[in-house]
Design goal:
Blueprint (H helix, E strand, L loop, with lengths): L8 E5 L3 H13 L3 E5 L2 H11 L3 E5 L7 H11 L4 E5 L4 H9 L4 E4 L4 H21 L4 E3 L3 E4 L5 E3 L2 E2 L4 H11 L8 H8 L9 H14 L9 E4 L3 E4 L4
Parallel strand pairs: 1-2, 1-3, 3-4, 4-5
Antiparallel strand pairs: 6-7, 7-8, 8-9, 10-11
Helix pairs in contact: 1-5, 6-8
Protein backbone atom coordinates (compact mmCIF):
# COMPACT_ATOMS: atom_id res chain seq x y z
CA UNK A 1 0.00 0.00 0.00
CA UNK A 2 1.44 3.35 -1.02
CA UNK A 3 1.57 5.66 1.99
CA UNK A 4 2.62 8.94 0.35
CA UNK A 5 0.21 10.65 -2.03
CA UNK A 6 2.99 11.17 -4.62
CA UNK A 7 3.33 7.40 -5.07
CA UNK A 8 -0.28 6.30 -4.63
CA UNK A 9 -2.16 5.29 -7.76
CA UNK A 10 -5.90 6.01 -7.90
CA UNK A 11 -8.27 4.21 -10.27
CA UNK A 12 -11.23 6.45 -11.16
CA UNK A 13 -14.24 4.56 -12.52
CA UNK A 14 -16.76 7.10 -13.85
CA UNK A 15 -18.79 7.09 -17.07
CA UNK A 16 -19.43 10.87 -17.13
CA UNK A 17 -16.46 12.39 -18.93
CA UNK A 18 -16.67 15.83 -17.30
CA UNK A 19 -16.77 14.41 -13.76
CA UNK A 20 -14.00 11.96 -14.63
CA UNK A 21 -11.74 14.77 -15.89
CA UNK A 22 -12.48 16.89 -12.80
CA UNK A 23 -11.55 14.06 -10.42
CA UNK A 24 -8.38 13.33 -12.38
CA UNK A 25 -7.35 17.00 -12.27
CA UNK A 26 -7.73 17.19 -8.48
CA UNK A 27 -5.96 13.86 -7.92
CA UNK A 28 -3.00 14.95 -10.06
CA UNK A 29 -2.84 18.32 -8.30
CA UNK A 30 -2.75 16.45 -4.97
CA UNK A 31 0.26 14.47 -6.18
CA UNK A 32 -1.47 11.16 -6.94
CA UNK A 33 -1.12 9.06 -10.04
CA UNK A 34 -4.48 8.59 -11.79
CA UNK A 35 -5.83 5.99 -14.19
CA UNK A 36 -9.39 6.04 -15.50
CA UNK A 37 -12.09 3.66 -16.64
CA UNK A 38 -15.44 4.46 -18.25
CA UNK A 39 -17.16 1.22 -17.27
CA UNK A 40 -16.81 -1.89 -15.12
CA UNK A 41 -15.18 -4.09 -17.73
CA UNK A 42 -12.45 -1.56 -18.35
CA UNK A 43 -12.01 -1.11 -14.60
CA UNK A 44 -11.36 -4.82 -14.07
CA UNK A 45 -8.79 -4.84 -16.86
CA UNK A 46 -7.00 -1.87 -15.29
CA UNK A 47 -7.09 -3.48 -11.84
CA UNK A 48 -5.13 -6.44 -13.17
CA UNK A 49 -2.65 -4.31 -15.09
CA UNK A 50 -2.20 -1.19 -12.95
CA UNK A 51 -2.63 -2.54 -9.39
CA UNK A 52 -4.01 0.74 -7.97
CA UNK A 53 -3.85 1.66 -4.29
CA UNK A 54 -7.45 2.96 -4.12
CA UNK A 55 -10.57 3.03 -6.31
CA UNK A 56 -12.99 5.92 -6.73
CA UNK A 57 -16.07 4.13 -8.05
CA UNK A 58 -19.34 5.43 -9.48
CA UNK A 59 -22.33 3.21 -8.65
CA UNK A 60 -24.37 3.85 -11.81
CA UNK A 61 -22.17 2.43 -14.58
CA UNK A 62 -23.35 1.47 -18.08
CA UNK A 63 -22.43 -2.21 -17.85
CA UNK A 64 -21.69 -3.57 -14.36
CA UNK A 65 -23.48 -2.02 -11.39
CA UNK A 66 -20.97 -0.39 -9.05
CA UNK A 67 -22.21 -2.43 -6.09
CA UNK A 68 -21.61 -5.63 -8.05
CA UNK A 69 -18.22 -4.42 -9.21
CA UNK A 70 -17.23 -3.65 -5.61
CA UNK A 71 -18.11 -7.23 -4.68
CA UNK A 72 -15.91 -8.55 -7.50
CA UNK A 73 -13.04 -6.35 -6.34
CA UNK A 74 -13.39 -7.52 -2.74
CA UNK A 75 -13.00 -11.17 -3.72
CA UNK A 76 -9.53 -10.56 -5.14
CA UNK A 77 -8.12 -7.26 -3.86
CA UNK A 78 -7.80 -5.67 -0.44
CA UNK A 79 -7.72 -1.98 -1.36
CA UNK A 80 -9.92 0.94 -0.31
CA UNK A 81 -13.01 1.68 -2.41
CA UNK A 82 -14.80 5.04 -2.28
CA UNK A 83 -18.22 5.20 -3.90
CA UNK A 84 -19.19 8.43 -5.66
CA UNK A 85 -22.90 8.46 -6.43
CA UNK A 86 -25.93 10.65 -7.08
CA UNK A 87 -27.93 8.25 -4.86
CA UNK A 88 -28.21 10.25 -1.64
CA UNK A 89 -30.80 8.48 0.54
CA UNK A 90 -29.55 6.90 3.77
CA UNK A 91 -30.62 3.48 2.50
CA UNK A 92 -28.40 3.95 -0.57
CA UNK A 93 -25.42 4.97 1.56
CA UNK A 94 -25.89 1.97 3.87
CA UNK A 95 -26.25 -0.37 0.88
CA UNK A 96 -23.01 0.98 -0.54
CA UNK A 97 -21.09 0.54 2.69
CA UNK A 98 -22.54 -2.91 3.29
CA UNK A 99 -21.27 -3.81 -0.18
CA UNK A 100 -17.83 -3.34 1.44
CA UNK A 101 -17.01 0.15 0.24
CA UNK A 102 -14.78 2.07 2.63
CA UNK A 103 -16.45 5.43 2.09
CA UNK A 104 -19.35 7.08 0.25
CA UNK A 105 -19.43 10.53 -1.33
CA UNK A 106 -22.62 11.94 -2.84
CA UNK A 107 -22.90 14.03 -6.01
CA UNK A 108 -22.57 16.93 -6.39
CA UNK A 109 -19.41 16.95 -4.31
CA UNK A 110 -16.51 19.24 -3.52
CA UNK A 111 -13.46 17.70 -5.28
CA UNK A 112 -11.21 18.92 -2.45
CA UNK A 113 -13.32 16.92 0.01
CA UNK A 114 -12.98 13.83 -2.19
CA UNK A 115 -9.19 14.28 -2.16
CA UNK A 116 -9.29 14.50 1.65
CA UNK A 117 -11.33 11.28 1.79
CA UNK A 118 -8.83 9.56 -0.50
CA UNK A 119 -5.93 10.61 1.73
CA UNK A 120 -7.75 9.51 4.89
CA UNK A 121 -8.53 6.07 3.48
CA UNK A 122 -4.96 5.59 2.26
CA UNK A 123 -3.67 6.51 5.73
CA UNK A 124 -5.97 3.99 7.40
CA UNK A 125 -4.99 1.27 4.93
CA UNK A 126 -1.30 2.03 5.51
CA UNK A 127 -1.71 1.83 9.30
CA UNK A 128 -3.48 -1.53 8.98
CA UNK A 129 -0.59 -2.87 6.90
CA UNK A 130 1.97 -1.75 9.51
CA UNK A 131 -0.06 -3.24 12.37
CA UNK A 132 -0.13 -6.72 10.82
CA UNK A 133 2.82 -7.88 12.94
CA UNK A 134 2.69 -11.62 12.34
CA UNK A 135 1.87 -14.56 14.57
CA UNK A 136 -1.07 -16.91 14.56
CA UNK A 137 -4.09 -17.92 16.62
CA UNK A 138 -5.60 -21.39 16.60
CA UNK A 139 -7.69 -23.89 18.47
CA UNK A 140 -9.10 -27.26 17.48
CA UNK A 141 -11.48 -25.62 14.98
CA UNK A 142 -10.31 -22.14 13.95
CA UNK A 143 -6.90 -21.07 12.61
CA UNK A 144 -5.95 -17.45 11.84
CA UNK A 145 -2.58 -16.38 10.46
CA UNK A 146 -2.14 -12.79 11.65
CA UNK A 147 0.48 -12.03 8.98
CA UNK A 148 -1.17 -13.33 5.81
CA UNK A 149 -4.58 -13.25 7.50
CA UNK A 150 -5.47 -16.66 6.18
CA UNK A 151 -8.51 -17.98 8.05
CA UNK A 152 -9.23 -21.71 8.17
CA UNK A 153 -12.04 -23.75 9.68
CA UNK A 154 -11.00 -27.38 10.11
CA UNK A 155 -8.25 -26.72 7.59
CA UNK A 156 -10.54 -25.24 4.94
CA UNK A 157 -10.16 -21.59 3.81
CA UNK A 158 -12.88 -19.17 4.91
CA UNK A 159 -13.50 -16.31 2.43
CA UNK A 160 -13.71 -13.13 4.50
CA UNK A 161 -14.35 -9.66 3.13
CA UNK A 162 -11.83 -6.94 4.08
CA UNK A 163 -13.96 -5.32 6.80
CA UNK A 164 -14.74 -8.77 8.27
CA UNK A 165 -11.01 -9.52 8.41
CA UNK A 166 -10.27 -6.17 10.02
CA UNK A 167 -12.94 -6.70 12.68
CA UNK A 168 -11.68 -10.21 13.44
CA UNK A 169 -8.08 -8.95 13.65
CA UNK A 170 -9.07 -6.15 16.02
CA UNK A 171 -10.89 -8.55 18.34
CA UNK A 172 -8.23 -11.29 18.13
CA UNK A 173 -5.42 -8.92 19.07
CA UNK A 174 -7.33 -7.82 22.18
CA UNK A 175 -8.86 -11.02 23.62
CA UNK A 176 -11.56 -10.50 26.26
CA UNK A 177 -11.45 -6.73 25.74
CA UNK A 178 -14.92 -5.31 25.14
CA UNK A 179 -15.23 -2.92 22.20
CA UNK A 180 -18.31 -0.78 21.82
CA UNK A 181 -19.98 -0.50 18.43
CA UNK A 182 -18.80 3.11 18.30
CA UNK A 183 -15.18 2.12 18.99
CA UNK A 184 -15.23 -0.58 16.33
CA UNK A 185 -16.80 1.77 13.82
CA UNK A 186 -14.21 4.46 14.51
CA UNK A 187 -11.25 2.08 14.25
CA UNK A 188 -12.35 0.22 11.12
CA UNK A 189 -14.38 2.76 9.15
CA UNK A 190 -13.13 6.01 10.66
CA UNK A 191 -15.21 9.02 11.57
CA UNK A 192 -14.48 10.62 8.20
CA UNK A 193 -16.78 8.04 6.64
CA UNK A 194 -20.46 8.66 5.98
CA UNK A 195 -22.08 5.59 7.44
CA UNK A 196 -24.30 4.14 10.13
CA UNK A 197 -23.10 2.17 13.13
CA UNK A 198 -25.61 -0.53 12.19
CA UNK A 199 -23.03 -1.44 9.55
CA UNK A 200 -20.80 -2.80 12.36
CA UNK A 201 -23.57 -5.09 13.59
CA UNK A 202 -24.26 -6.35 10.07
CA UNK A 203 -20.57 -7.20 9.59
CA UNK A 204 -20.33 -8.91 12.98
CA UNK A 205 -23.39 -10.99 12.09
CA UNK A 206 -21.86 -12.00 8.74
CA UNK A 207 -18.51 -12.78 10.38
CA UNK A 208 -20.20 -15.05 12.91
CA UNK A 209 -21.97 -16.93 10.12
CA UNK A 210 -18.59 -17.65 8.56
CA UNK A 211 -16.51 -18.67 11.60
CA UNK A 212 -18.95 -19.88 14.26
CA UNK A 213 -20.31 -23.42 14.39
CA UNK A 214 -23.55 -21.97 15.78
CA UNK A 215 -23.85 -18.21 15.08
CA UNK A 216 -26.82 -18.00 17.46
CA UNK A 217 -24.63 -19.30 20.28
CA UNK A 218 -21.16 -18.00 19.38
CA UNK A 219 -17.96 -19.43 20.80
CA UNK A 220 -15.59 -16.71 19.60
CA UNK A 221 -17.33 -13.36 19.16
CA UNK A 222 -19.50 -12.65 22.18
CA UNK A 223 -22.03 -9.89 22.68
CA UNK A 224 -21.68 -8.03 25.96
CA UNK A 225 -25.14 -6.58 26.37
CA UNK A 226 -25.20 -2.86 26.81
CA UNK A 227 -21.50 -2.56 25.93
CA UNK A 228 -20.46 -4.21 22.65
CA UNK A 229 -18.44 -7.23 21.54
CA UNK A 230 -15.38 -9.20 22.61
CA UNK A 231 -13.35 -12.16 21.35
CA UNK A 232 -13.26 -15.08 23.74
CA UNK A 233 -11.39 -18.27 23.00
CA UNK A 234 -8.36 -20.22 24.06
CA UNK A 235 -5.80 -20.30 21.29
Amino acid sequence: MAEESKTAKILIVEDEAEIRRLIVLYMLNAGFQAVTAEDGKQALELLERERPDLIVLDILLPDIDGLELCGIVRRSWDIPVIFVSCKRESEDVISGLEAEADDYVTKPFDPAVLVARVKANLRRASRRDKNDDGGEWKDERLYVNLLSFEVLIHGQPVPLLPKERQLLLLLLKHPNQVFSVEQMYERIWGWESVSDERTVMVHISNLRKKIEADPASPKYIHTVRGFGYKFQGEG
